[in-house]
């Protein structure tokens, strides 16, 4: 007999057979002699053990009187059915059970000595409240449907987990209140029904041990393995969140229960219709394996690996079944597939297509190490689970498409999160109207009255540096070729070699002058078409061949030219851009906390950024001009931090490069419009175009009346046009000088006139480069005002 109580219960449980004994007493008084005599004989034995009538709390009495109790229960446990029924005496929800049928005994024996039978997913909380519900139902006559399905999960002799549905019969039980019980009103009962999870409330109305549960119950089990396993699989597949598929071991256990095969394993592959390939979903790579694609991540579905074996699966959408892989390998023309399966110890398998609306989504793989375990007969069981797998894979594909679209939106378009809401609203309008009208006209995405902020950190003299590295590499390559030709011994090609040497020397001399637009392409084409064929086809001595070999080793794989100095320059440019963009992106996250605004940046020969702030971008949040001032101060601080980042990085660069910083101040609000053809925002209107003109030309401008550029290395240049802007930025500079971020000296000058634009002025100030980035803490506009006041 299994005995295990939960720690607390509203019941004091007493096992009693008094109701059966009363029925024996009635039979003893009947006129049917054999029935009467049998009843009297049983009653004589019962009288020797009065606890069978009054109640048993010492469970050893049950164990000592198993034979008598079996006879008392004989009418409820017919001998003819003992090998068929799964039945025992129990107390509902408690692990008290005895008087098992022979089939029940066999099931428990096969489970092993260490197995302990307990209700699946049944907590102490549920145990207590379910007992309380018994009282409400049987004593207070409340119609409460609390009998959810209960299951025992019991392994068989092969280790396959079987699932048994539990049914209780409580006809031989009675519920009795004690002096400690609480008399409930209908209001109390209503309160309990509305508060299932409030265990303290239930315990206050049904104190521990305040009721007596007297009698016994009967538990009957029926094998619901297939139905339960499908339900578990459905729960695992349909639950939300990233872990929609459990580990392959857990899924295999479920299929083992459905097919009653202890060695069954499950795999899965997805079909990609665009490329007509089978792929292993990377998202579940560690959770669900594949036996068809054990080595490759993907394979063409028309690949010779599958041969004609998969024609039914692909064309007719029917399962492909191999009941004996060894025999299949010997007799089939597709030995490659058979050998692939045998290497994995697979002797029988089913590959079933998963189909939605006539389209192939993927293939479920069932494999076993035993021949004929899987066959065309039990393959029909897949019809029970394929609908759930179909929904799961369809949802996986939909989720994947949504994530891909999100990645495209995040990585490849300029729809910043701050303005995404407006695109979404317009898309919703289209979606809601697309079934009502054929010609829906998209509204233009425009944000009016926004304030622009523009800034950049530019690589100083990048074009000159690039040209210089090109010239160095070209000279090195031409010199290497001339060295090879100088070592060539006279032969029949002497005249041709002399001509080529002359041409190479002429090209090298050209590089002493400024580089022309087509010089690099001209030299590259000449070397590839005229020189390389000679080197590859001319046989020379060992030294010549060694020089040629060393020359070809120095060529870049992509360009086919020397790419040493240019590589250093390109790498330095890439490192600077990446590091500075990282700083800007990180600081931009902080800036969004000031006030939501549109942000975009570009990597060119440096890093540029545009910001637009205004009420139209975030209509749910009140806008104040103070947010613009905060953002301007943030921008100036951020450029200081980017300058310091470059200064710390400079010494470790493969090619030394300096940077210049610039801020363009524009105080008039403007409108920005999303250009559908370019898929980006641009300023709107003729007047506002002036701002774009200044942006494009200002960094190459000179100080008025001189040949000196307005930008200079390690300095920040602030270009403006109004006195109020000048006063505002001088406050910021003064404050940052006070914080030892900017040097004390300030330069102020006029900017030369641009085409259609005049009257611009500038402030230039140097960043103190011997401080650490960590010293530039976030300073708000209010901080500045507080300190200045």
Can you give me a brief rundown of this structure?
This protein is α+β, with helices and mostly antiparallel strands and 789 residues long. Helices cover 43% and strands 19% of the residues.
Share of residues in helices: 40-55%
Residue-averaged pLDDT, rounded? 83
The count of DSSP E runs of length 2 or more, i.e. the number of strands, is: 23
Separation, N- and C-terminal Cα atoms: 86 Å
| Approximate strand percentage | 15-25%
Q: Find the structural class using helix and strand composition.
A: alpha+beta
Q: State the low-pLDDT regions, or none.
A: 241-246
Sheet having the most strands: 9 strands, mixed
Overall 3D geometry? elongated
Q: Gyration radius, to the nearest Å?
A: 43 Å
How many H/I helical runs?
A: 25
Organism: Flavobacterium ginsenosidimutans
Protein name: GAF domain-containing protein
Could you please describe the fold and organization of this structure?
The longest helix has 30 residues, at 382-411. The protein contains 25 helices and 23 strands. Strands 15, 16, 17, 18, 19, 20, 21, 22 and 23 form a 9-stranded mixed beta sheet that branches. A 6-stranded antiparallel beta sheet has the order 11-10-9-14-13-12. The protein has a 5-stranded antiparallel beta sheet with strand order 3-2-8-5-4, sandwiched between helices. 29% of the residues are buried. It is an alpha+beta fold and 789 residues long. It comes from Flavobacterium ginsenosidimutans.
């Amino acid at each position: 007999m299994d005995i295990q109580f939960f720690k607390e219960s509203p019941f004091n449980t007493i096992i009693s057979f008094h109701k059966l004994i009363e029925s024996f007493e009635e039979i003893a008084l009947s006129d049917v002699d054999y029935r009467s005599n049998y009843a009297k004989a049983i009653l004589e034995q019962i009288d020797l053990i009065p606890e069978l009538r009054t109640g048993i709390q010492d469970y050893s009495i049950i164990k000592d009187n198993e034979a008598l109790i079996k006879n008392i229960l004989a009418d409820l446990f017919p001998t003819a059915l003992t090998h068929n029924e799964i039945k025992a005496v129990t107390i509902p929800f408690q692990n008290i059970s005895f008087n098992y049928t022979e089939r029940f005994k066999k099931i428990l024996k096969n489970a092993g000595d260490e197995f302990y039978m307990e209700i699946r997913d049944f907590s102490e909380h549920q145990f207590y409240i379910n007992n309380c519900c018994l009282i409400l139902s049987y004593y207070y006559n409340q119609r409460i449907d609390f009998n959810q399905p209960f299951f025992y999960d019991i392994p068989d002799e092969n280790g396959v987990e079987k699932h048994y549905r539990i049914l209780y019969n409580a006809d031989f039980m009675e519920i009795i209140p004690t002096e400690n019980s609480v008399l409930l009103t209908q209001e109390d009962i209503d309160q309990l029904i509305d508060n299932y999870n409030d265990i303290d409330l239930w315990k206050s109305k049904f104190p521990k041990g305040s009721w007596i549960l007297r009698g016994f119950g009967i538990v009957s089990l029926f094998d619901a393995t297939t139905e339960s396993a499908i339900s578990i699989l459905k729960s695992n597949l349909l639950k939300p969140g990233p872990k929609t598929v459990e580990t392959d071991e857990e899924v295999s256990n479920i299929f083992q229960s459905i097919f009653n095969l202890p060695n069954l394993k499950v795999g899965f592959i997805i079909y990609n219709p665009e490329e007509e390939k089978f792929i292993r979903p990377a998202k579940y790579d560690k959770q669900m394996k594949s036996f068809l694609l054990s080595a490759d991540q993907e394979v063409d579905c028309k690949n010779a690996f599958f041969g004609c074996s998969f024609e039914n699966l692909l064309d007719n959408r029917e399962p492909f079944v191999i009941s004996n892989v060894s025999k299949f390998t010997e007799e089939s023309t597709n030995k490659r597939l058979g050998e692939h399966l045998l290497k994995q110890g697979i002797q029988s398998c089913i590959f079933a297509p998963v189909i939605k609306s006539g389209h192939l989504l993927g293939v479920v793989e069932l494999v076993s190490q035993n021949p004929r375990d899987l066959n065309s007969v039990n393959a029909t069981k897949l019809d029970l689970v394929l609908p759930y797998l179909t929904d799961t894979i369809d949802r996986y594909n939909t989720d994947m498409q949504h994530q891909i679209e999100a990645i495209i939106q995040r990585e490849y378009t300029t729809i910043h999160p701050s303005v995404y809401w407006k695109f979404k609203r317009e898309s919703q309008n289209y979606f809601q109207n697309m079934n009502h009208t054929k010609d829906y006209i998209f509204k233009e995405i425009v944000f009016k009255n926004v304030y622009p902020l523009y800034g950049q950190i530019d690589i100083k003299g990048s074009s000159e540096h690039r040209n210089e590295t090109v010239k160095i590499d070209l000279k090195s390559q031409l010199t290497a070729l001339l060295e090879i030709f100088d070592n060539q011994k006279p032969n029949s090609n002497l005249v041709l070699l002399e001509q080529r040497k002359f041409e190479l020397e002429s090209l090298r001399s050209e590089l002493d002058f400024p580089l022309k637009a087509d010089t690099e392409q001209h030299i590259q084409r000449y070397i590839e078409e005229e020189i390389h064929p000679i080197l590859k086809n001319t046989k020379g001595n060992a030294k010549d061949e060694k020089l040629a070999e060393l020359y070809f080793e120095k060529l870049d794989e992509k360009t086919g030219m020397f790419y040493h100095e240019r590589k250093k320059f390109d790498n330095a440019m890439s490192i600077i851009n990446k590091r500075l963009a990282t700083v800007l992106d990180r600081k931009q996250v902080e800036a969004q906390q000031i006030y939501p605004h549109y942000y975009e940046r570009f990597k060119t020969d440096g890093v540029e950024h545009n910001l637009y702030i205004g009420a139209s971008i975030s209509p749910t949040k009140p806008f104040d001009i103070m947010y613009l001032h905060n953002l301007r101060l943030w921008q100036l601080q951020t450029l200081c931090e980017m300058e310091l980042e470059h200064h710390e990085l400079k010494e470790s660069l493969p090619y030394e490069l300096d940077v210049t910083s610039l801020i363009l101040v524009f105080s008039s609000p403007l409108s920005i419009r999303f250009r559908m053809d370019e898929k980006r925002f641009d300023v709107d209107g003729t007047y506002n175009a002036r701002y774009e003109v200044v942006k494009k030309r200002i960094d190459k401008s000179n100080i008025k009346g001189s040949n000196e550029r307005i930008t200079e290395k390690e300095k920040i240049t602030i270009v403006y046009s109004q006195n109020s802007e000048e006063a505002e930025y001088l406050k910021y500079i003064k404050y940052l000088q006070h914080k030892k971020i900017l040097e004390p000296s300030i330069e102020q000058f006029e900017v030369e006139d641009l085409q259609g634009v005049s009257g611009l002025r500038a402030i230039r100030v140097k960043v103190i480069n011997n401080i650490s980035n960590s010293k530039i803490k976030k300073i708000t506009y209010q901080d500045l005002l507080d300190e200045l006041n």
